[in-house]
Design a protein that fits this description.
globular; single chain; binds glutamine; alpha/beta; eleven-stranded mixed β-sheet
């Protein structure tokens, strides 16, 4: 029963094959026996069982929707009332939010059952989940490998079938990259589609909440429930949310798929490139039309992102000063010493690196040279996409240049770590919806992800293309050994 998708569980719950309480209990036990993955920061067993029995009552009365009684796990940067929200950081180790994030609230209203909070890179800064104060998460496909990051705990949870769905956030690739490295479907919606209220800010102009699941169909249903205008988030888009599930079965014959030559370069591992070429033939077989497109400024994505994201982070993380939230140092003589010691003890090395870079690029002597220049590049990158989308409906390429790398391999080389985002962060810079879906395995049995980028607010097309691809492939059905 553990290995089913959310929609399969939904049918089983309605058919009284098992109850949400039984399912929840089974998954909690499974999670406890998989503690070596270090995928969770907090398990919320008691609360989960209460939510599940409430869901069972609704189902018994014939009430509730497609997600009622379905378990999920939240990345530990979504605020959850009465349950701690650590952001993978010592500085928030003891932080309990007085309210739920809008996304959390909406999924709860949809009847979903929260099993716990997932491990992550500290403040979502990273590509491997090795930057967590709570230790690294392991990849269920190979315990010596990273699950990707920063939403690596969420990805490990779903890949190991500890829950059918987990939420994540994506500032530069943190949903799609771990989805790719763990063999999952993961979607980052358009900027503004999902409320950021109650989602601890890293880089506010790039951050977006989304989901990882076993299928694009599950992604469509959960995205539906979490999307839509929220007056509590001033960047939330006041636009109707289309019925995503409705369009999943549409034919993709005649759809124009853009292939940016910049995404098929020497930097991509040959086995990854081969799997992507095969995926493209699958799409062609379904009647999609391939068009070559140019994204001439894509090489600027990494430097542009790694100026803007730290700049915004240095401003956002200024609030963690030992006064209002979380950790405060024990010994100090004056307030300056208290700030300094609190932040020195509370933040890990990667966060400190970002704060230094951010403060530097915003400083008076360097603001024009770095921050303003990066903003101009961001505009050029977004314009490239607008031009490309005049010729195509969706853009396709590899999600990551390689499959999951060994734990420890890149921890001493931040630039190598940053290069994991080479294909993902431009969608954040342009605010576009993007998704990764399973597209094969390398010779070591590690998953490969196919990346789909859509037009602004057009999640419908990428979900439709992904679903049609999944009806014709079975990569998404593979289960890591030992987790079946
Ligand atoms: N890997 C990127 C970073 O470290 C992206 C992280 C994210 O999307 N949250 O900033």
């Amino acid at each position: 029963m553990e290995c089913r998708t959310a929609l399969e569980h939904s049918r089983a719950l309605k058919g009284k094959e098992y109850s949400s309480v039984e399912l929840t209990r089974a998954l909690l036990e499974h999670s406890q026996s998989c503690a070596d993955l270090n995928a969770f920061i907090t398990l919320t067993s008691e609360q989960a069982l209460k939510q599940a029995s409430h869901a069972d009552r609704l189902i018994a009365k014939g009430e509730g929707g497609p997600l009622t009684g379905i378990p999920l796990v939240h990345k530990d940067l979504f605020c959850t009332k009465d349950v701690r929200t650590t952001c993978g950081s010592r500085i928030l180790d003891n932080f309990i939010s007085p309210y739920d994030a809008t996304l959390v609230e909406r999924l709860q209203q949809a009847g979903m059952v929260m099993l716990g909070k997932a491990n992550m890179d500290e403040f979502a800064m990273g590509s491997s989940t090795e930057n967590s104060y709570y230790g690294p998460t392991r990849n269920p496909w190979n315990h010596e490998r990273v699950p990707g990051g920063s939403s690596g705990g969420s990805a490990a949870v779903v890949a190991a079938r500890l829950a059918p769905v987990a939420t994540g956030t994506d500032t530069g690739g943190s949903i799609r990259q771990p989805a790719a490295l763990c063999g999952l479907s993961g979607i980052k919606p358009s900027y503004g589609r999902v409320s950021r209220y109650g989602m601890v800010a890293f880089a506010s102009s790039l951050d977006q909440g989304g989901i990882m699941a076993l299928t694009s169909e599950d992604c469509a249903y959960v995205l539906q429930a979490m999307s839509g205008f929220d007056e509590k988030d001033s960047t939330s888009i006041n636009q109707p949310v289309p019925d995503y599930a409705n369009s999943l079965s549409d034919s993709i014959a005649g759809k124009a798929v853009g292939l940016p030559k910049e995404f098929f370069t020497d930097g991509v591992d040959e086995e990854v490139a081969e799997a992507i070429r095969e995926s493209i033939s699958v799409l062609e077989g379904l009647g999609a039309r391939m068009v070559e497109i140019d994204l001439p400024n894509s090489a600027a994505g990494i430097p542009c992102y790694y100026v803007l994201a730290p700049a915004e982070a240095s401003s956002n993380l200024a609030r963690f000063d030992g006064v209002r939230y979380g950790h405060r140092t024990f010994e100090y003589t004056d307030i300056i010493e208290m700030y300094e010691a609190t932040r020195s003890e509370g933040f890990g090395p990667e966060v400190k690196r970002r704060l230094l870079i951010g403060a530097y690029v915003l400083s008076i002597g360097y603001f024009e040279a770095y921050y303003v220049k990066a903003q101009k590049l961001r505009r050029l990158i977004a314009d490239d996409f607008s031009r490309a989308f005049e010729k195509c409906d969706v853009i396709v390429g590899p999600t990551t240049p390689t499959t999951a790398f060994p734990i420890g391999l890149k921890t001493d080389d931040p630039v190598q770590m940053y290069l994991n985002d080479v294909f993902t962060n431009s969608a954040n810079l342009a605010g576009l919806p993007a998704m990764s879906i399973p597209a094969g395995f390398d010779r070591q049995g590690l998953p490969i992800g196919l990346h789909l980028i859509g037009k602004y607010l057009d999640e419908t097309t990428i979900l439709n293309v992904a679903h049609q691809y999944q009806l014709n492939t079975d990569w998404h059905q593979r289960i890591p050994e030992g987790y079946a």
